[in-house]
Amino acid sequence: MPGEFPGINTDQYFATDSNINVFVGGDYLADGGAAETEGTLVVAGSATFNSGFFNIGTVGVGSGIVPEVDSDMLIVGGDIVLVGESELDVGHPVGAFAGGGNVVAGGQITGEDSIETNGGSISSGVDNALGNYAGFADELAEFSADLTEEAGTAGFLDGSRLILEGDGSDNLQVFTVSADDVASASSVGFINFGDSAPILINVIGENVNATFNDFSVYESLADTAGDRIDNVTAGTVIGNAAARILWNFADATDVTIGGTSQFVGSILVPAAESATDVTASTNGRLFVGGDLTTRGNGNEQHAYPWSGSPLTDCTPREENSETPEEEPETPDEGEETETPDEGDEPEVPGEEEPEAPVEEEDETPVTEEEAPQVEDEVVVEETEAPVVDDATNTADEESLPVTGANIGLVLPLAALLLVLIGGGLALIARTRSRA
Questions:
Q1: N or C: the chain end with fewer CB closer than 10 Å?
Q2: Where are the beta strands (DSSP E) in 179-290?
């Protein structure tokens, strides 16, 4: 499974990740010796740390795909509680990463003196602390439901191996697996995949126990040796595999992620009433709509995107949802109310037609309704490009009257020519409308 992502290394900085790596729609608990979470951690509820020393944002051993320097790395809608002698180290310098990460809480922070931000800031009692992530849980639910609509191939058990066999192409590979088969498997085997195909595994069932000790690629079903892709000492293998795999526990309410292996692939548990218990180190996005507990001595969450969707890549939230920027085009539809256009009709009956455009030119910059009027008639193709950039809206309003003034002069001159050529033909007033 070749690719372009790093393996797990010490003191590594590989790339900037401007998205969330771990999202929790309910409450978060780091317990029992859990060591670190790489990337941005967002918790809608409260976050409790009861695991001794804990890294956030950057980690001692990880992918090196980390947030921007001095960005918000721990964002909590409720309270942050450090239990006993627990300590947080946020945005610690690694490799070329200079260090610095912010902590933001909507509630209170207990144990603030035990939080090291490496030059970053700590803020509590923040209104709308979740900011752009306030509706992320709903997005996850919709995203998960959409993924289950993808037509998939059934995964199957071969002894204790859960076998997922692809078609060899680089297209999205989709599999459907029952929660019972997942619980019966102690390893996962991948067969016949292209070099870069995203892999989606839809797991069906409310209670899921994914406890795997081995993730391997096999040449065929008869191959029992395979090549491990969960091996952290095998260069980039684990990173390339993790960035391609997504486990979608679409209707699960009780999920356990465990085993002696590094868990390979992003994890999606969208249900708001769900509880997810992670006792193995994970590699990929970890998005849950309900509560999340991570525990176990030295367990970590390593940051890798999933290549199958913009929602799970490394771009910031603002770039993942650009539709609001196009909404300013809607007011331009006010052009349909261009009944003031009819205000031009008095120009025609009057014999002083050349003077009417001059008056219209003076009035147009003042009357906002007349600027869109000409835009509708002449520059329809140009309306979309300027509107996308809000900063150009004012310039558009200034330039449109110029266009309208030119047309106002041409049409009356053409009318005069008709009078001369036609030998006194009457000028019809309606020639002014929508020529």
A1: C
A2: 187-191, 199-204, 207-211, 215-218, 227-228, 245-248, 254-258, 263-264, 266-269, 275-278, 282-283, 286-288
